[in-house]
């Protein structure tokens, strides 16, 4: 059992508790994990995303919070890829449908895909994102891209990735995480 007490979330309340306990931890040098999550969800809403994709945007980095709670270090302190996307998607799978967990599981692969298909994109990544890209395998090969594009959630994952890259505004006035709880409960099984 991890320090978070969670292998798989059994309730939305457990997710709320994790974000309440660890969400104020830094996401990067500018904003907290909580602020990044809320900004990402707001961007998804502003784009007219489905309720499931908004929740995927909100919770896409829950695996980072689980890793921080488990190992006591920030994501940028990892020297190996902790596979936060897999940790998070697996922990959420009991509560949420594949339309939530699929984009979460693939959002790192979506970064690798985008780096392979858009040379300019790599230049827009933050230094932390470039460093993690190296740990995550770098840009995809042609074979990896073809395989990625067969996944039913690949397009949703690339949308999520776009919001993930943008949701880093230190000057934003974010609504509370609690504002998304009713939507989370409505999407949960």
Automatic annotation (TrEMBL):
Q: Which InterPro entries match?
A: HD/PDEase_dom, HD_domain, OP_Dioxygenase
| Record-linked Pfam families | HD
Q: Which residues form the HD domain?
A: 35-99
Concerning SUPFAM superfamilies, the annotation shows: HD-domain/PDEase-like
The protein's name in its UniProt record: Unannotated protein
